[in-house]
Amino acid sequence: MDTNYTILMAVMGMEIGGAETHVLELAHELSRRGFRIIIASNGGVYEKELTEAGIRHYRLPLHNKKPANMLHSYLGLRKIIKEEKVDIVHGHARIPSFICGFLHKAMKFPFITTAHWVFNTDGILKYVSNWGQKTIAVSDDIKQYLMNSYGVPERDITVTINGIDTDKFSAQIDASDVEKEFGLENSKNRIVYISRMDNDRSLVAFQLVQIAQELDSEIENLEIVIVGGGNSLERLKQEAVLVNAEAGRPLIKLTGARTDINQFIKTAKIFIGVSRAALEAMSAEKPVIVAGNEGYIGIFDQDKLDICVQTNFTCRLCPASSVERLKEDIIRLLKQADDSELSRLGSYARSIITERYSVSRMAQDSINAYRSLLTEKKLLNDAVISGYYGFKNNGDDALLSAIIDNLRLYMPEIKVCVLSFRPKETRKKYGVCSVNRFNILSVLHQMKGAKLLINGGGSLIQDATSTQSLLYYLFVMRLAKRRGLKSMLYANGIGPISKKANRVRAAKVLDSMDLITLRDPDSVEEIERLGVKRSDVILTADPAFTIKIAGDERIAQILEQEGISKGARLAGISVRSWKSHGPDFERNMALTCDYLKNKLGLEPVFLNMQYPADLRISLSIAKKAKERPHIIMQCLSDSEMLGLISNMEIIIGERLHTLIYAAVAGVPFVGLVYDPKVEGFMAYAGQDKCVPVNGFTADMLCREIDVCMGDKAALSERLAAKTEEMRGLSLYNAQLAVNLIREK
Asked: Nearest CA to 672 among 642, 648, 633, 700?
């Protein structure tokens, strides 16, 4: 990447703090490499250092959400971007990135953000965030947070580090200025703690003050130096004054906000802190106790490396810091450890910084993200996936999840865009690009330069739902061909298609497909009846056969939340509203529930595959039953639903994917046939126990249930063997799709 770019970094302020120091060091390194760096912030102690380094700084009130300040900052940033001819805007905090996001929409400049921390996403706060076209996360857990909380696609996230200037933070620097200013004698067993002294950052500082007298009675020549300023500083000073009065000397020294923290670190015997401050102390070869408001890790050594790296030295989700653990580790280092042990810890800490946390690497990570951003127009989709997605239907969600996972198995770098009814939810759930399926301009844009359209699973080519539905999918397939994409029918079910005109339309489009794979033999026969003139149709299996099952702990949690007793014998029931239900459908289902409970000793559990659509009919049936069945009231993921079904003794299912899940789990099932696809799947799976939804009686259904329960072991064994075969055929779909992409 050429270095003749002007990069504007927008940050809340340039006071002392981890994010601010990150920006400071990044700006220095990028400037040294030839980039022109401009910083906009509310200013602070580092402003002078930036100016001395030739980095221009604009002061704007980017530090809070006051409407007047945000408007001032919006207008100021717009002026800077225009007048300075900024090439890339890089937001480094929530408020600056939020404002820059609005400017990006209006001015169309390349926009990137860095996530330094996790934010509260409750209520409206979730929407006071704008993530750039590309996002840099300073740790893997923040990357996961961006994907889970905001739906940022994984391919748009770069994970970086907090780069440390190893010359500035070194055991060889001169610290005489601060030693003289604060009377810091070399003979002291000195603890140095550095952090912002704000309410949400100063917990360990207060804990140090709390245990200072106890430590003083255990450790000779003890001295505690606390560096940093903030809204808790005055309260901390008041508590320190009392401790010092009791000790009869300045046992605790508070410096306030400083920019020469490298000198204070140099004077330390041991260091306490988190995040960037901990890394800086490690660079200076100091033994470090990693502790902060987010949690407690303890003395940094080889056994703590993994957890420190995973949390970016923040202690996020670790056990809380306590005075007992803090006191124990301080005494271990300053009383029990000898100089050789302290030296070993310091040397190991320094080696980790030089290997993993250099400023050079941090800058290169940003440069790589800039390069990716500037070449975004070349990052085209490999595949566009069309299907019944974003409608909160567990079966179709399972198809999409399986298709994406299986494609990535054969092509880990694959880039896909999903056409969805709820694209924001789809982006968040699957970490992929997604656009509204009815926004034709967006669909066309995503098809531009793509290689393959995947008509992804399910019974899409049918008019039983409506002619409108069939015409939509045929239109998308024709559109893809006109845009030059290859097209694949991916493990679809075909039919029923009743109207003659629809059959003619479907046959014409299907004849133009590059590849057709179908999930059951009935669909193969139906495509022949349509008159499709091709001999290369491949019989495979539904993608849902590769869905991963949720863990036992999560399933136990769901059962507990739904009030289902641990160890209860369960029978799963899945129903849907359907036009061909007989007049007594609900009454017969209610009688079946009573039979399961009273005659077989099973607890009936209604599983709502499309939420909340299936919930209404489940509730209606439950009201008609004498023995009130359980109803799963929450919307479950595909893996959770599969895990729940695996805990059942039998499944009575109308929804096709309930039956597929039962087959995958090896649970015997009885089908309620509302559509030929249900009967077709059951025949393909080697399970013939079914009744039609129109005209069945409770006695008919209960007889089939009895047969299944009586032959349960043999049925489960046959299903397990068939499922393994189906899984291989299901994966074959993905292999064929990837071959098409790579041939393009």
From this structure: 700
Residue matched to tokens 């990693």: 290
Both tokens assigned to 430: 């699957």
Query: Which amino acid would we find at residue 328?
Result: E
Helix 656-665 × helix 638-645 angle, to 10°: 60
The pLDDT score that the predictor gives to residue 468 is: 94
**Phi and psi at residue 258, to the nearest 5°:** -140, 155
In whole angstroms, how large is the CA radius of gyration of the chain? Answer: 32
pLDDT per residue as tens digits for the range 206-237: 999 999 999 999 999 999 999 999 999 999 99
Copy the structure tokens of residue 290.
């990693």
Is a pLDDT exceeding 70 seen at residue 351?
yes
E strands, 639-739, are 650-653, 669-673, 690-692
CA distances 245 to 65, 206, 211, 242, 252, Å, are 41, 17, 15, 5, 10
Average pLDDT in the chain? 92
Q: What is the pLDDT of residues 278-292, one digit of tens each?
A: 999 999 999 999 999
Q: Quote the CA–CA distance of 364 and 136 in Å, as a whole number.
A: 12
pLDDT given for residue 124 in this prediction: 46
CB 218 within 8 A of CB 212: no
Task: Please report, as a single letter, which amino acid is at residue 186.
Answer: N
> From start to end of 392-480, where are the E strands?
416-420, 433-436, 452-461
Quick one: DSSP state of residue 334? Answer: I
In a domain, 591, yes or no: yes
> Per-residue confidence at 1, pLDDT binned at 50, 70, 90?
low
Inform me whether the pLDDT recorded for 94 exceeds 70.
yes
Whole-angstrom distance, CA of residue 107 vs CA of residue 733: 43
DSSP β-bridge partners for residue 488 = 454, 515
Residues 413 and 529 in one domain: yes
Q: How many domains does the chain have?
A: 4
Provide the β-strand partners of residue 578.
none
Burial class of residue 239 (count of CB atoms within 10 Å of its CB; 0-12, 13-18, 19+) = middle
Contact (Cβ atoms closer than 8 angstroms) between residue 132 and residue 112: yes
The dihedral through the CA atoms of 101, 115, 162, 200 has a sign that is positive
Question: What is the Cα–Cα distance from 311 to 138, expressed in whole angstroms?
Answer: 10
Residue 136: domain span:
6-159
CB neighbours (10 Å) of residue 338?
A: 8
Q: Is residue 285 domain-shared with residue 204, that is, in the same domain? A: yes
Is beta strand 56-59 parallel, antiparallel or unpaired with respect to 538-539? unpaired
CB atoms within 10 A of CB 368: 15
How far is residue 4's CA from residue 34's CA, in Å, rounded to a whole number? 7
What DSSP string runs through 409-423?
Answer: HH-TT--EEEEESSH
- The CATH number linked to 230 is 3.40.50.2000
Query: What DSSP designation does 550 have?
Result: P
State how far the alpha carbon of 579 is from the alpha carbons of 393, 464, 694, 699, in Å.
Answer: 18, 10, 10, 22
User: How far is the C-alpha of 328 from the C-alpha of 347, rounded, in Å?
Assistant: 22
Specify whether the CB–CB gap between 709 and 649 falls below 8 A: yes
* Listed residue (256, 204, 258) closest to 231, CA to CA: 256
Residues 718 and 570 in one domain: yes
The neighbour count for residue 642, using CB atoms within 10 Å, is: 24
Q: 278 in helix, strand or coil?
A: helix
Hey, what amino acid is at 525?
Answer: E
3-class SS of residue 303: helix
Task: Kindly state whether residues 515 and 612 are assigned to the same domain.
Answer: no
